Amino acid sequence: MSEAEPARRRRAPAMSLDERRAAIVAATLPLLPEHGANVTTKQIATAAGIAEGTVFRAFKDKQELLTTCLEVAMRADAEVDQITRIPTSTPLTERLAEATDAVSGYLDRLWSLMQTMHRSGFDPRREHEAEGSRKGPREQMQRVSTAIAELLAPEADSLRLTPDLTARLLLGLVFTNRMQGKGFGDEADDAAEPAQLVEVFLHGALNSTGGRKK
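^ that's the sequence the OP posted. Answer follows.
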């Protein structure tokens, strides 16, 4: 090949339909917190580096794409992985505080996205009910609960209840701790910190001196 002859460009391997759908979803998710359901397929195509028509070859319409994006956003894979990586050799309070922090972040992220979608005219609950086969937050929280129960397993003989039930009760406390202000998704300024919440969960609402801790 002479120096003047342009080098032939190697064509990137074609994606399968599943790979293309996953790539489009990955490009769409960062756009949703700002635009919600008002995000355009042109914006999505630009973010994904594809032609706009490719979006509709991967998804039948924008509604299906948004529903798929929410399904992916609901997944607690990162949180479950974070919890399962917590060493059971560390003190129980530290284990539960780290797990509580992971769950709190998941709830804040999910509720904030749900509110943004709802305000832009997309009802996440209705769309999820229409897709009955898809797993939503309830199933994801069950995965989280199972992971926390495993953290409690070394103390099983010291617990009043089973690790599974204890984990569910802790999640109930974490859930209500994030319910602040005007509703879910608002910044929880008055929420307890993970370590504080775990202390109350393990030792009760009263401290040893009978006065409120600052």
